[in-house]
Amino acid sequence: MKYTKLNFMMSVLGIIIYVTDLIVDIWVSVRFFYEGQYVFGILTVSFMLFGTLVVQCFSYSWFKDDLKESGQESQHCFLLLHCLQGGVFTRYWFALKKGYHVAFKYTSKTDNFVEEHIDPHKEVIDRVTDLSMLRLFETYLEGCPQLALQLYILLEHGQENFTQYAAIMVSCCAISWSTVDYQVALRKSLPDKNLLNGPCPKLVYLFYKLFTLLSWMLSVVLLLFLNVKIALFLLLFLWFLGILWAFKEQTDFCSSISMEFIYRIVAGFILVFTFFNIKGQNTKCPMSCYYIVRVLATLGILIVFWSYPLSVFNSDYFIPVSITIALTLLFGIIFLIVYYGTLHPNRSEETKLDEVDGKPVQRDCRMKYFLME
């Protein structure tokens, strides 16, 4: 388990995408307020605050856990940094600083360290994995609602401007990157998990997630045009079901009861948009049910929308959007089947999907109870 120069470059790319996403979100919100579209501006800022506040809570909680494990007292400067929304940047600083030393300056001559010392490669990988999960949280808590809002605005007004296209493209890139990056980092941090090697599995996994998510986003936008109250009720209902499932699974990801409660709420929110394994257990049946319901819900929205007069929607976009929804859903399901059927890291094992069998392997990182699918 080594932290390589390529891993370091990917970490640098990650912070570039993070900063770009932040700048574009601020730019979009300022533009909305400048143009007098206060509702859209307030929604954009609200999505940003919701995502970043949750991420700062998890980041500070993990900082306290790490300090406690190392026998150190919690430092007030970390609390101040997180209150100022600088928790993620602080983590990037520590990860890149240590990662640069390990990737470029750490040689084989220094490998003969005393066994009780922490492996520097593992230390960096754990830090990068923490960052990947925080970015994953923020992406789905802020990026997905932001993407739905921008698509709604674009289709409602039919105005083509650089700001909207930039926001949509950056949101898609951020979602795609955080999804694949976390899957790769997580498997690298867990010793009993096979690595996601090669570009082909990563690309197929990326397209599976991106296409199924884009299809659902466009379906939700269509439902918003039809009836905002019905769309919000559906999303809240799905969120509630996701939270119930997290409680039913009795997740034990966090060290405190309060943070575990927040984690289950966040897990339920992410399940509204995509499926993931919230407890690192066999998920073949739940995932199959999830996407069967997703397909039926998407088809139901399309059928209902086709039965309504086109006056509720810009007819120039209606047919292309409907075709896009159908094709992205179809391609997403195909990529899903290809990934789990031929490219999944555990495909050569006689175990079921992400099921831990045989002699248990000791995992000493906080990700031991979480595995995204």
From TrEMBL:
Belongs to the XK family. Keywords: Cell membrane, Membrane, Transmembrane, Transmembrane helix. It comes from Monodon monoceros. Pfam families: XK-related. Its main location: membrane. InterPro entries: XK-rel (IPR018629), XK-related_scramblase (IPR050895). The gene is XKR9. GO terms for cellular component: plasma membrane. This is XK-related protein. The chain crosses the membrane at residues 12-34, 40-63, 165-185, 205-225, 230-247, 261-278, 290-311, 317-340. It is found in: Cell membrane; Membrane. It is a multi-pass membrane protein.
